[in-house]
């Protein structure tokens, strides 16, 4: 069982706190190339160093900015591997899935189905309000974006999934010895980690419902499927398709996407729609395909500590 794989006598909760700090430090080290590039650019161009995140993100060409930002996740992922192996004496597989090996078919199915949903949703928006979108396609910058995105965005999204749905979910399971507490805590932390995103400034805190709800959805499919494969595929598709398809001047990343969203952002039913309609549809599809049963026990049940340590 997925959560039980992390419950060992030596895996005290305070070790997860130390491990989390180590992963954060690794991420900060990964941000050094971007910081160094910003300082160098300011020195060469004799300009003041930008003080806001928005200004920093506009210093370089979008593809270079994206590359420099995503590099930090490579370091963070290395930090996860180090912590899992040397601090907790587990394998990376044990915080990925309860299966004997990672089920790539699950990853690809989740990636594909969310790609179809995302492209389909955008198509509906575009044909309903084409005036809100501007054609932005430039072949060479777009191909570079595809290369950078295909290589590094899955690392970024996988890093986040390993932290929240893998490492911390098992950590909170060690603390609470049940399933509902890790599910709720990782969802809340995942959501609040997005509180400084420019989307929150533009739309207000109501969008936190979407972020926390997405964390809850990813946690549910991880617990029901006894592994992160579906969450890995979903998250990668969400960020990669978003980066390639449409960008805006108020989103986290400005990319050489195919379209630019020119509309004024507002938090309406579109924020709630994924939580109350789309995610339940996906849960239904996954549950039928993978024959999920015993929902209450898998999402809220107690963990038998003696069995998990055998």
TrEMBL record:
Transmembrane regions listed in the UniProt entry: 13-44, 64-87, 107-127, 139-159, 180-197, 203-223, 230-247, 267-286
Source organism superkingdom: Bacteria
Entries under InterPro entries matching the protein: Rce1/LyrA-like_dom
GO biological process, one term: CAAX-box protein maturation
Signal peptide: none
Keyword annotations of the record: Membrane, Transmembrane, Transmembrane helix
A Pfam family the protein falls into: Rce1-like
An annotated Gene Ontology molecular function: endopeptidase activity
Location of the CAAX prenyl protease 2/Lysostaphin resistance protein A-like domain: 142-241
Name of the featured protein: CAAX prenyl protease 2/Lysostaphin resistance protein A-like domain-containing protein
Organism from which the protein derives: Flavobacterium cutihirudinis
């Amino acid at each position: 069982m997925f959560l039980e794989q992390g419950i060992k006598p030596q895996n005290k909760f305070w070790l997860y706190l130390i491990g989390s700090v180590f992963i954060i430090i690794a991420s900060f080290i990964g941000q050094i190339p971007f910081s160094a590039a910003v300082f160098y650019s300011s020195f060469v161009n004799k300009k003041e160093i930008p003080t806001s995140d928005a200004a920093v993100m506009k210093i370089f060409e979008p593809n270079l900015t994206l590359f420099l930002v995503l590099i930090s996740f490579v370091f963070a992922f290395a930090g996860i591997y180090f912590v899992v192996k040397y601090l907790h004496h587990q394998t990376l597989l044990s915080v990925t899935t309860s299966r004997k090996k990672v089920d790539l078919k699950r990853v690809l199915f989740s990636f594909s189905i969310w790609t179809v949903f995302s492209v389909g949703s955008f198509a509906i928006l575009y044909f309903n309000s084409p005036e809100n979108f501007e054609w932005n396609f430039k072949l060479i910058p777009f191909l570079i974006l595809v290369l950078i995105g295909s290589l590094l965005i899955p690392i970024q999204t996988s890093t986040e999934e390993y932290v929240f749905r893998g490492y911390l979910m098992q950590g909170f399971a060690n603390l609470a010895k049940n399933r509902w507490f890790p599910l709720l805590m990782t969802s809340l932390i995942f959501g609040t980690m997005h509180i400084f995103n420019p989307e929150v400034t533009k739309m207000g805190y109501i969008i936190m419902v979407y972020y926390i709800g997405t964390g809850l959805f990813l946690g549910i499919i991880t617990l029901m499927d006894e592994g992160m494969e579906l969450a890995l595929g979903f998250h990668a598709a969400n960020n990669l398709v978003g980066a390639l398809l449409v960008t805006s001047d108020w989103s986290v990343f400005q990319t050489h996407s195919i379209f630019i969203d020119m509309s004024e952002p507002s938090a309406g039913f579109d924020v709630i729609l994924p939580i109350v309609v789309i995610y339940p549809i996906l849960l239904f599809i996954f549950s039928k395909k993978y024959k999920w049963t015993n929902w209450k026990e898998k999402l809220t049940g107690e963990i038998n500590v003696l069995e998990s340590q055998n």
